Amino acid sequence: MTDNINMNIDEGDSEINDSDDEYEIPPDNDVCDMLDEVNLNTELPIITDRYFIPYYKIDVQKKYDDICIRIHSNRICMLSLAPSHALLQNKYEIEKLSFKVTEKLDRTANKISGKGKRGAQPMQANSNICIITCTNGEVWPIKCCIFGKLIEVNESLVENPQLLKKPPHKGGYIAIILPNIKIAESMKNMLLTEDDYKVAIDKRENILEEMNNLQNGDTSKRARDNEFSSSDKPEKMQKT
Asked: Where is this chain compositionally biased, Basic and acidic residues type (predicted)?
């Protein structure tokens, strides 16, 4: 039986052609066509867009005091100024940023340890995370807007406050907050989604534009009334 097996193997080997002479290399003239089908102009999503969902709170303390909270799937929140914040407009020049929010409380002194983030400074929605001063003397305290534990602050902003005008992934974020797991989901209901934010911004601009138009209209009306009242006054008779 062994002889029959060996005989079959020998016969099979005789039919195998291990020469490369008969192998035809497939044409590669279709590579260009394949590349043409790839859209090389498509922008890849940045890391904050890929892994974080943005939420917003506008007019926190006054008009154009808009904050963006990017929330990761693991609950970590990245705090930054929203694109519509007044400090990101050209009329403002940022002079300095300080994480020393009171005489005794400095956010840069935050020290944490362990998985429970022991030692982290507790944050409330109305807690000041930093204070920004402009060259015109105007001061903007920036609120945390959420409840949680302070994980870190972006100390690079102290040395270079102009980084605030950069995207978060390029150094423009202010702080990292870990919200309480019990209120993480309900916290989102207190914030605006991306779509809601855009609607709210458009609505605010429309209202301000209407107010400006009314104000300009009232100013013009008063000017006309003053002009008419002046022309209606009788001239004083000169004594002869």
From this structure: 219-240
Q: What CATH number labels 47-110+119-195?
A: 2.40.50.100
**Model pTM score:** 0.71
**How is residue 28 written in tokens?**
């590669």
> b/e per residue, 143-154, with b = 16+ CB within 10 A?
bbbbbbbbbebb
* 3-state SS, residue 206: helix
CA-based angle 84:121:131, to the nearest 5?
40
Beta-carbon contacts of residue 228 (< 8 Å; ≥ 6 apart): none
Q: How far apart are CA 219 and CA 232, in angstroms?
A: 20
**Domain-by-domain residue ranges, the chain?**
47-110+119-195
Question: Can you tell me the distance from the alpha carbon of 36 to that of 157, in angstroms, rounded to the nearest whole number?
Answer: 44
